[in-house]
Amino acid sequence: MTPQFTVWIIVSRPPAAVFEAVADPLILSRYFTTGGAAGRMESGATVEWEFHDFPGPFPVQVIEAASPERIRFTWPRSDGTGQNEVTFRFDPVDGGSRTKVSVSESGWPDSDAGRAASYDNCMGWSQMIAALKMWAEHGINLRESAYK
Predict the structure, then answer these.
(1) Residue 16's CB: how many other CB atoms inside 10 A?
(2) CA angle 39-108-85, nearest 5°?
């Protein structure tokens, strides 16, 4: 079975605001892409993400950006052997005053190396959505100086 996962968290902000925190490169750079983000997450766009803890930039090819419901994109596997698909879902909670953010990723090969890489990304996306929550709710950057 090929590795895949979904992680999620509830953010106490409406879906449109949480969607923007991922789609807008200026906001995303404040809490996630420690080396910056270039380009807005729009359907058909290719944007770049950079991280202090990984060489980059990483090209991110946006398949779909449907505000405020979801963002789907592909990006390169860390071993350079192909592309993975990532889906962000922004589901309203409590009448839309809060958002359940889910991140799913798939595409690794069915191998020990593929499973190990998926575990690393699962940890990374879990940290990303925790950082998103702290930024959106409190303006705190959890990643600041955590990886350099």
Answers:
(1) 14
(2) 30
Nearest to 101 by CA among 128, 64, 119, 73: 128
Tens of pLDDT, residue by residue over 79-111, are 778 999 999 999 999 999 999 999 999 999 999
Give the CATH superfamily of 4-21+66-138.
START domain (3.30.530.20)
Q: Of 9, 1, 6, which is closest to residue 91 (Cα–Cα)? A: 9
> What is the dihedral angle through the alpha carbons of 26, 31, 35, 40, rounded to the nearest 10 degrees?
-30
- What are the residue boundaries of the structural domains of the chain, listed by start? 4-21+66-138
Which strands sit side by side in the sheet containing 83-93, from one edge to the other?
A: 4-11, 98-106, 83-93, 70-76, 54-66, 46-51, 36-38
Closest by CA to 67, choosing from 49, 48, 40, 38, is: 40
Find, among 109, 102, 103, 101, the residue nearest to 78 by Cα. Answer: 109
Q: Tell me what the mean pLDDT of segment 26-55 comes to.
A: 92
